[in-house]
């Protein structure tokens, strides 16, 4: 009887451990990530930045929760839980990663453009085609296209913008068959299907969400490889790293400088999520300066949350909470970053 009880206890304990460590929950844990030196990602004119100090992009670690990790991290500061629906909607993991990769590539393109513009160097924006961002369930092209594909032609016609592409399709008829040429995982393919009536506009269409797929080409070569990092939030720091190497001004003067923020093609720094966790990561890496997006709250944001704080305010509060000596610098434009570093 005793041996039988020991056996039951053993297998019960084993089952609890297995479930606790390996059973995936429909919740993700967002915790402080790393402050990654940008020199490993950026190469201008075939060279990496080897000047003293570091520019660093900051990340947030995102992992699917297991019962034990969920309970552990709930006791830790600067940890948030996000449901799968909040994070991905109805997108699959592959689709979500594909979209994050697109946002990162767009961010890199804008970073290159702004950096070259401010450094007075030439660049050219090349239109590659129509990037597929989403596909309606009733789209006739659903069995052909995938998120991340690039449409290069329709009925043999090439276009220079999404706007021109949409204008052409609107002039056709619902039910009319059109032929599209597209790139799927670097392989060129062709599909011919009828146009559908779009639910909202009632115009003819393919039934996809689409954006411009472009690439910035430069006379002085530049390569930016972000590895497994996705999303647009590294745009500001990519811009700074490229500009500093391109201009030869070496503005960091041996310091470890971190920051975050999206970068628009016009040089505007945009807000991001998880900035408290990025401040923690930068502080751990020994940064002395942290650039934070500083945009006033909109009326809508104030209505939804009277205590709303923007990225800069949250970053300052976080630095104070962790007793950090980092200088938190508010920025709205890339020129604000340059003005501070040249001061």
TrEMBL record:
Give the active-site positions.
233, 278
Give the family, as the similarity comment puts it: Belongs to the peptidase S16 family.
Specify the domain of life of the species encoding this protein. Bacteria
Molecular function (GO) terms for this protein are:
ATP binding; ATP-dependent peptidase activity; serine-type endopeptidase activity
Enzyme Commission designation: 3.4.21.53
- Write out the entry's keywords from A to Z: Hydrolase, Lipoprotein, Protease, Serine protease
Q: Which reaction does it catalyse?
A: Hydrolysis of proteins in presence of ATP
Q: What is this protein called?
A: endopeptidase La
- Show the Pfam families listed in the entry: Lon_C, PDZ_2
